[in-house]
Amino acid sequence: MTTAARLNKYRSIANRSLQNVMAYRNSYIINLLANSINLVAIFFLWQGIYGGREAVGGYSWDQMKTYLLVTFLANSVLSWYSETAISGKILDGSVAMDLLKPIDFQTARFAETLGASLLEGAMSTVLLIVFATFLTGVTFPHSPIVYLLFAVSLLCAVVVKFGVVYLAALLCFWSTGSLGIVWTRIALTNLLSGALVPLAFFPDWLEKLALLLPFQAIIHTPTMIFLQQADTWESLRLIGIQLFWGAGLWMAGKAMWNWAVRQVTIHGG
Amino acid sequence: MKISQMLYLYRRLYVQQLKAILEYNKDFYILMCSAALTQVLGFVFLWVIYDRIPDIQGWQFWEVTFMYAMIFLTEGAGSLFFEGSWRLGRLVNTGELDRYLLRPVPVVLQVFCTGIGINGLGNLLIGGVIIWQSLVHSPIHWTAGKAAILILLFVTAVIIRVSINLMGNSAAFWIRNAGNAFPLMVHNLSDLAKYPITLFPQAIRIFISTVLPYAFISFYPATYIFGKSGWSGWWLLAPVAAIGSAAAAYGVFRYGLSRYESTGN
User: Fold this and answer.
1) Transmembrane stretches, by residue range (chain B) (predicted)?
2) By CB neighbour count within 10 A (0-12 exposed, 13-18 middle, 19+ buried), where does A57 fall?
């Protein structure tokens, strides 16, 4: 099969997943609104924290506002949908059908994720623009290079996050439910990626540890670039690290899949 | 039906569910640990912030952790004993609710016993520890009356939580969709009550004190226990909020049930 034909296959999978999100748009919009409740709560919490203070942990209030918005965007680009779709396939046994198809399971799931992410990203961006117009003092970068680097790092963040989600989902081969695994993954990712609080707030040892792990590539890197806390060369280096984790997790996912399918027990005859 | 009979039935139904989950015990532990971990990491978040600043608009670390933990503790009690309300959507959509209607047992009781969220145990445990630590680390002048009121406030908090969950999930009678998106959104609104409501604009304060009285789970009990000036006496409204939300939830559930027309095949 030629490369073009192969790509075409996965593009149609991505397209289908995009349409899937469209079909269930009401649930998706309610979901997005539900997530923005959390953003509102966290926003006012931070506002209280900054009340009468110039800077906390090296971030000014204006920078923190920007940080929260960028975090929200990076978080909602790959959300619940892709999370439950993969583990769901494994738990209900429909993965057996995927084993029969002449497509790579991992690539197909990634294509699905990308398809949904596209729409999720677009909708979150709209929501963010609404938020941003109500807020004063959000610091936007001026240089177009920053936006370019940010877009690239956001895409890389999706790859890394997919890697983490995929590995977590494969764990469902050994369990009978996905909820606990999903919750654990979300909790760990939120803390160690900088989604809850910038890594600079952590005590020294925890910050060092977080920087050594892949999670920081999901939130910390895009926000560093958008807030211009990293210059162009530093940004490229950070994106390089994201790519390293993206590739590493991809291969780990592949290895784990190859091992897991040999242990598979599917419900029913 | 008498209360004692209801309790007896509740216990019997509950034990049956318990047997069912103990069958899958690996999941049991994963769920419990993940719920506990989620809560602990949220606690770490507050700790990291308070490591940098002494207070948030006059609120001390242990006062905020108390509110934070109350939200999780009541959630834990809700999932452990009343998880079934989260299955209502599926019961309505698959028409399984038919079975419940045929039995001479209150439908709401059967719904409550449709499942057990064992994750609640993790939340109860960690929430309990955090609340205990909050009380130990704060200068509170304890009297028997204060302890009794605290227990009363715990009870009202759980009632409010469970009622709001039931109300949110009753949306399944109107929204014909397999998902849980709407009740989850109602559930997520409790995020607002994890922190002092004084941080929020007036509109949000009123909303989480009246429409969805989550503030009576966390904030108002905290003002009483830590003796916040300017808020004395407000906790007295907690039982009112509890009775109000329970009545409203039951009303909404009954009304939804009267509209229930099963699924056609």
Assistant:
1) 28-50, 65-86, 107-132, 144-164, 204-227, 233-253
2) middle
